[in-house]
Amino acid sequence: MNRRGFLNGALAGAALVTAYIPSRGAWAAKPDPKDKAIKIPSLDGQLVLAGPLLQEAADDFGHIISSAPVAVLIPGSIHDVRKLIQFANKNGVKVGGMSMIGNTHSTYGQSQVAGGVVIDMSALCEIHQISATEAYVDAGVRWSELLEATLPLGKSPPTLTDYIDLSVGGTASVGGIGGQAFRHGLQVDNITELEIVTGKGKLVTCSAKKNKQLFDAARAGLGQVGIIVRARVRLIDVPPMVRVYTAYYDDLAAMTSDQELVIDDGRFDYVEGFAEPGAEGWVYKIELVKYFDPQQPPADAALIGDLAFTDGTLNVADSDYFSFANRVVAVVPILQSFGLWDLPHPWFDMFVPGDQAVDFIEGVLAQTTPADVGPFPIIIYPFKRAAATAPALPLPPGENCYLFSLLRTAIPPATAAGLIAKNREIYEDLHEIGGKRYAISSVPFAQQDWKDHFGAYWPLFVCNKLEYDPKNTLTPGQGIFSW
Ligand SMILES: Cc1cc2nc3c(=O)[nH]c(=O)nc-3n(C[C@H](O)[C@H](O)[C@H](O)COP(=O)(O)OP(=O)(O)OC[C@H]3O[C@@H](n4cnc5c(N)ncnc54)[C@H](O)[C@@H]3O)c2cc1C
């Protein structure tokens, strides 16, 4: 069943909120007249009080934290979002705050809100316009849907996450990184305009030229300043085919040296890499992709002739652009059929300074067994620090930065708690060398950790929160602010 079908099914017969009862701090479907309830504004969508939508909003891809909301808004328009925030502000509704869900693919409760209201942005999923250079979309649109609409026109968003069944609003709130980031930056670097309902209930359009403070605060802003309701996303021309080169290395430094060579000279369109269990410890697999027109296939020798991978390990495969972009989504049914999608996923995605990447990653892998990770990959690839420009996304200094991802699944006897404790230990070492945690991760963070994480940006981060969400209503699941 698609998302729209699920929402319609879940809404059928659901108890709907009609009023708020200030004396009890509660939402109600049929308030008792004694309760002096305040009627909620009329909505184009629905505010739901019980049922499968609430269960879904109390879970995420991590399956580690479960915080139940008291209601879920299925907005019928962006005005519903604005009306609900304004209503909450006017009537002192706090009860746990409010949070947004795109596709609930965070791993540590980031989109959840205990006792509050979740705004299910997946209900707003219209692609409004596609021009030669950009797409204008609702925040609930998934990157897979956008790509399906743009590829017939020969266009694609410049950077795609490895898994594209994620919402535009969800990755705009965290960053959105993929193998094209070395050239194009993250997805947040390719968003040219946002429409946001701030925590004060104002609908504001912002960009690098207009309301820049809000634009900078919201991109990778972890949902702290507002609800992203629409976005303009840059598009580039892409050829219809991709050639994927993979090859193995016994030595991490040899792989990263080749990765850095090819991101420097830009001969490929996409650069990633992985650690995999080998016969005698970890081995490393580079993944390099060249886009092409079928009339002009890539010159293989010129692309890979000088790379230092192990002889006999090269694999070359062609596919159409969409199949490549959608490759992870395509294996989800298999993972689901083995129950692996439903196990806890204490993922830890790290940004490691380029000049320390090999030592750090080797150190972590020396303490990591294949059983500590499970069936998802360990990802290792560099990107140019200068391509990543969103101020709210802290990254280590230096010319190159590595994404290093331990995409863990807690398969018994491994436990989520045990793997999270390992994540925290690794975080201490990462912090020591100036590395940063990607916010989707499962690593317990106290407020001092957040201060360290944002570093020099922390005072501005706090000022933005006070400016746009002074009542601290939005996205408590990130665990940043507690007043
Ligand atoms: C299988 C898989 C593969 C992944 N691959 C990648 C990858 O290659 N690269 C990468 O960068 N990430 C990747 N991720 C992580 C993913 O980008 C984040 O988890 C992202 O936040 C998920 O988007 P979502 O739509 O599910 O958002 P959610 O998890 O629903 O929300 C994420 C955060 O953003 C907030 N939020 C959601 N929508 C809005 C909105 N409209 N306005 C304001 N705040 C909002 C939420 O409250 C929450 O705090 C992957 C995740 C999974 C499960």
How would you describe this protein?
The protein has 3 domains: 3-123, Uridine Diphospho-n-acetylenolpyruvylglucosamine Reductase, domain 2; 127-238, Uridine Diphospho-n-acetylenolpyruvylglucosamine Reductase, domain 3; 241-443, FAD-linked oxidases, C-terminal domain (Vanillyl-alcohol Oxidase, Chain A, domain 3, 3-Layer(aba) Sandwich). Helix content is 28%, strand content 24%. The protein is built from 15 helices and 22 strands. It has an 8-stranded antiparallel sheet. It is globular, with a radius of gyration of 23 Å. The two termini are 40 Å apart. 48% of the residues are buried. The protein binds flavin-adenine dinucleotide. Flavin-adenine dinucleotide binds next to strand 6, helix 5 and strand 13.
Condensed summary:
With 483 residues, the chain is of the alpha+beta class. It contains 15 helices and 22 strands. The chain folds into three domains: 3-123, Uridine Diphospho-n-acetylenolpyruvylglucosamine Reductase, domain 2, CATH 3.30.43.10; 127-238, Uridine Diphospho-n-acetylenolpyruvylglucosamine Reductase, domain 3 (2-Layer Sandwich), CATH 3.30.465; 241-443, Vanillyl-alcohol Oxidase, Chain A, domain 3 (3-Layer(aba) Sandwich).
How are the secondary structure elements laid out?
Elements lengths: L2 H9 L7 E3 L4 E3 L9 E2 L6 E3 L3 H6 L13 E4 L3 H13 L7 E4 L15 E4 L6 E4 L3 E5 L4 H8 L4 E2 L11 H5 L8 H4 L6 E8 L4 E5 L4 H7 L7 E9 L1 E2 L3 E9 L2 H14 L4 E9 L2 E12 L7 H5 L10 E6 H5 L1 H11 L10 E6 L3 H10 L11 E7 L15 E7 L9 H17 L3 E2 L9 H8 L3 H11 L15
Parallel strand pairs: 5-7, 6-7
Antiparallel strand pairs: 1-2, 1-3, 4-5, 8-9, 9-13, 10-14, 11-12, 11-13, 15-17, 15-18, 16-17, 16-20, 19-21, 19-22, 20-21
Bound molecules: flavin-adenine dinucleotide.
